[in-house]
Write a structure and sequence with these properties.
- By secondary structure, this protein is mostly beta strands.
- The chain contains no helices and eleven strands.
- The N and C termini lie far apart (77 Å).
């Protein structure tokens, strides 16, 4: 008999965000399911690394650990590269046909980002297939950031105590 290796397919790969506002804390929610199990590799307790690409528009490369109600992803440490690649490894087997939902938090950059970037996902398996992730087409579209602007007429004058748009101590006076 010939040994066959099945391609991994993310049957669900959804991503959304909580905030489109510049400098805001933004909770990213990911829902994943696969058509094959993601198991540890050759009994070494090493699970396939998963990468979500296209997460540009963050203020820095700091993210929170993954939060989830299941053991495979809850508390997983993540790495976000300067190019917007979020890499993480499950803590246990990821069963096929099960929806896994997890969140992580980033801080949006101070400038707008429209349109939102295309976001994709891949797992470091033998077949290494890259798939697009689906995201809503409204303000919850992942990494869509509204362009900051002053509302009001041409005579609106605004002063603030800091020139840094993400400063926590900045106060605006109109």
């Amino acid at each position: 008999a010939i040994m066959a290796i099945e391609d991994l397919d993310f049957t669900t790969a959804d991503i959304a965000q909580s905030s489109p506002y510049p400098c805001d804390e933004n909770t990213i929610t990911v829902t994943l399911s696969t058509d094959v199990d993601l198991l540890n590799t050759c009994g070494t307790s090493a699970y396939p690394e998963i990468t979500i690409s296209g997460l540009t528009g963050t203020k820095d490369d700091a993210t929170s650990a993954l939060a989830s109600s299941d053991g495979a992803f809850n508390g997983v440490t993540t790495t976000l590269s300067a190019s917007g690649d979020l890499t993480f490894t499950p803590l246990s087997d990821v069963d096929s046909a099960v929806s896994y939902v997890f969140t992580f938090t980033v801080r949006n950059q101070e400038t707008g980002q429209t349109p939102a970037p295309a976001i994709s996902i891949t797992a470091d398996t033998l077949t290494h297939v890259i798939q697009d992730m689906s995201t809503p087409t409204d303000y919850t579209e992942a990494m869509y950031i509204i362009e900051p602007r002053v509302l009001g007429g041409a005579k609106t004058v605004v002063h603030q105590s800091s020139d840094n748009p993400c400063a926590e101590i900045g106060r605006a006076h109109v």
